[in-house]
């Protein structure tokens, strides 16, 4: 997906089969969306509308809430970190670091 959208890297962040599009204005967002859809269509790829979110100020993306200059862990991730028992072994420390990262 990254190579397919390499010309859109100023406003699109692809990860596997997800793409987040960041725009400064509604007009920019429509143009960016059109560019992304054109690239996907050219590669004979399709989107599933039920999984799409359009024109959102904030979205959950890769375990984070992002938008309008904000990037913070999603609430479920924060709660999982808070609820994680204090690690007492190397294996538990690794598990915690995997959860946090």
UniProtKB/TrEMBL annotation:
Protein name as catalogued: Reverse transcriptase domain-containing protein
InterPro entries per the UniProt record, alphabetical: DNA/RNA_pol_sf (IPR043502), Rev_trsase/Diguanyl_cyclase (IPR043128), RT_dom (IPR000477), Viral_Replic_Matur_Polypro (IPR051320)
Pfam families: RVT_1
Gene3D superfamilies in the record: 3.30.70.270
GO biological process, one term: DNA biosynthetic process
Domain Reverse transcriptase: 3-64
């Amino acid at each position: 997906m990254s190579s397919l959208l390499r010309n859109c890297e100023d406003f699109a962040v692809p990860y596997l089969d997800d793409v987040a599009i960041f725009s400064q204005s509604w007009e920019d967002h429509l143009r960016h969306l059109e560019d992304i859809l054109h690239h996907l269509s050219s590669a004979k790829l399709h989107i599933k509308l039920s999984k799409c979110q359009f024109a959102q100020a904030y979205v959950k993306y890769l375990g984070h809430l992002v938008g309008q200059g904000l990037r913070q862990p999603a609430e479920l991730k924060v709660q999982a970190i808070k609820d994680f028992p204090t690690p007492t072994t190397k294996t538990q420390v690794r598990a915690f670091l995997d959860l946090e990262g």
